Amino acid sequence: MTTPDWHRIRQDFPLLDRQVHGKPLVYLDSANTSQKPAAVIAAVDEFYRQHNANVSRAVHQLGSEATALYEGARKTLARFIHVHPDELVLTSGTTFALNLVAYSWALPRLKPGDVILLSRMEHHANIVPWQLVAERSGATIRVAELTPDGALDLDALRKAMTGEVKILGLTHVSNVLGTVNPVADICREARKRGIITVIDGSQAVPHMPVDVTAIGCDFYAATGHKLCGPTGTGFLWGRREHLSAMPPFIGGGEMIREVRFEGSVFNDAPHKFEAGTPNIAGFVGLGSAANYLQDIGSAAIQTREAALLAHAMEAMQSIDGLRILGTAPDKAAIISFLIEGTHAHDLATLLDLEGIAVRSGQHCAHPLLQFFGVTATCRASLAFYNTHEEIDTFVAAIHKVRKLLA
Ligand SMILES: Cc1ncc(COP(=O)(O)O)c(C=O)c1O
Known about the structure:
Elements: H1 6-10, E1 19-20, E2 23-24, E3 26-27, H2 38-51, H3 61-81, E4 88-91, H4 94-106, E5 115-119, H5 128-137, E6 140-144, H6 154-160, E7 165-171, H7 183-192, E8 196-200, H8 212-215, E9 219-223, E10 234-238, H9 240-245, E11 256-260, E12 263-266, H10 280-296, H11 298-316, E13 322-325, E14 334-339, H12 344-353, E15 356-357, E16 359-361, H13 366-372, E17 377-381, H14 388-405
The site of pyridoxal-5'-phosphate (PLP) has 14 residues, from α4.
């Protein structure tokens, strides 16, 4: 594998050239949303300039082009995560994808006494839909706990997989801790026990090779805007037999074959889950993003980000009173931290004045922060387009800001 030219690759991202508060931007918030390469911006622009029409409705040339581009994006995404395109539902993001599984697969099947097993480190998008369907079905939620370093307690998880558990919802990578969960092993265990696995891949797909078929889950969701693609895009992969057995979630145009007032005949999956006009330009952009990342190579991205993470973890050791949440052995480039005597929001606000964008708050993961006994953290999340120099700038800025807050 030849090493990509990371300096040149960074130049693909026009926004990274800008200044913030008179300082060069250091963007360390990619777990929130990633920046977009020029190729993605150009693909969206080209769609609106040359091909804009609705999909699957018009027989005219533009309609055929738009449909081909939209379906082409589905195929590209399917290739990217190693699944069949007929099993890939295009959604507005992970949140919609997980709600689709909860309402369409789980709700009709759950009954009182059933258990939905969720890990402590889930994003609210993989907690709240389950709470809503649990309330309506009489099922209950059980929590798989963590070890103090923020890894999943695998022994406890195994013990928690009892006969009543019908569904396991698990994030592939924690958006707060960076913990990478051994999802393939866990899905194998779950499958033996007849538990349906729903994996949230939002923080995994952008940062490492993901072969969904090899993972062996039942459903896998991810969001496009963290994957160098436009906002309002994402997907749900589901095993063909599940998608075929699931009723539509949202009704309307595009998802039907025939409508009579006596009743409607629905389209096949994945189209039966894609009611209404989709975010066509967004998916054209997301397809372009997947091609872009494929050209760099997900394995190369993973290696690059591991080096950036190692540099950051080492450089941050110079900060007095530093507490890092999440030090599991298998960790992606996400660093949640606190500094004694400073509030996360104050720190993030002052870092912003230095041109440095980090996120502060609860990261849509209240139960996880409760586990660590904190109300907010700062989070620096890295991507392959960051540089070692930016990490040094970030750490130097923390030292400066610290003095101001002392
Ligand atoms: C792990 C994880 N799951 C789900 C989501 C929700 O994604 P979206 O808001 O794009 O639907 C996020 C976004 O922050 C996330 O990090």
